[in-house]
Amino acid sequence: MDLIKKSKENYQKCYPKITMVNLSTIIPNRKKALFLAKKQLPELVCDAVNLEGVNFTLPEIQTLLDGVTVGGYSLQDETIALNQISAWRFLFECVYDGKFSFSEGFVCELHGILAWKEALTWGVFRNGGVTIAGTDYLPPSTDKLPVYWRRLSEKHQSVLHQSKMDIEKIYRHAISIFLQMARIQFFHDANKRLGRLMMNGVLLTNGLPAINLPAKKQLEFNELMLNFYSGDDERQMQAFMLACLDENIVEIMST
User: Fold this and answer.
1) pLDDT in tens, 153-168
2) Which of 49, 50, 188, 211 is the right S-S partner for 120, CB 3.0 to 4.6 Å?
3) Handedness of CA 213, 215, 220, 226 (dihedral sign)
4) Mean pLDDT across the stretch 25-54?
């Protein structure tokens, strides 16, 4: 049985109310996928920062997108939100110009925008050890990070070459990128947010709709991520992330 089908079945056992999106109807179109993702930008940013405990509302994020400061938040919270906006806009620009790259240089540049003045260091791989709250799993030491990145990059090139336009395989691979970046923790902070940006960079470049992780699913997300960290078994998280695809956007991408 296909791994995607297995992961859907495993996930539905835990969360039976979830309806899985049919990916086979999607017609890849980079211009349309980018257009729809840009329309989603307020939601993408709002959900991302709320998952980090920064409780901006959607209208407040829309106000920030208009270049107007919102009162009542700390400078740190505002920095996180503005960085998220800048990172998405940079990603959109790179995908549009054909400059999105799964390279160390690109991911460090993107992290430099996303984690500016937020993380201990930004724009470079971490130079010290890190832990992940809630699990005994310990990410690899700093001297191993270049090796892990090279393996991830080589796998990326291999999968895209083999998959061509196999939509399910590209989604599975893009989600795996997010998961492995979160587990390896290449940077001091913002690894999950960065991983999701890279995941969506891969999807948009291939003309496929982006995946947004709604803040309302935070509990399920946290539970499944802790299980994933411990065992490096992607199946339930694969299905969970696929279930986050917006059915309306998939329908638009199917015509």
Assistant:
1) 999 999 988 867 799 9
2) 188
3) positive
4) 97
Tokens representing residue 27 in the block: 């017609």
Q: At what angle do helices 3-14 and 235-243 cross, to 10 degrees?
A: 80
The reply to whether CATH 3.30.70.120 applies to domain 3-252 is no
Distance CA 113, CA 214 (A): 22
Contact 231, 224 (CB under 8 A): no
Q: Find out whether 7 and 236 touch, Cβ atoms under 8 Å.
A: yes
Contact between 117 and 144 (Cβ < 8 Å): no
pLDDT 10s digits, 220-239: 999 999 999 999 999 999 99
Cα separation of 192 and 252, whole Å?
A: 28
CB 199 within 8 A of CB 211: yes
Residue type, 148: Y
Residue found under tokens 């590209």:
170
Q: Per-residue pLDDT for 17 more than 70? A: no
94, amino acid identity: C
The structure tokens 């989604």 sit at 171
> Do 202 and 34 contact (CB within 8 A), yes or no?
no
Domain ranges of the chain: 3-252
C-alpha angle 177-241-128 in degrees, rounded to nearest 5: 40
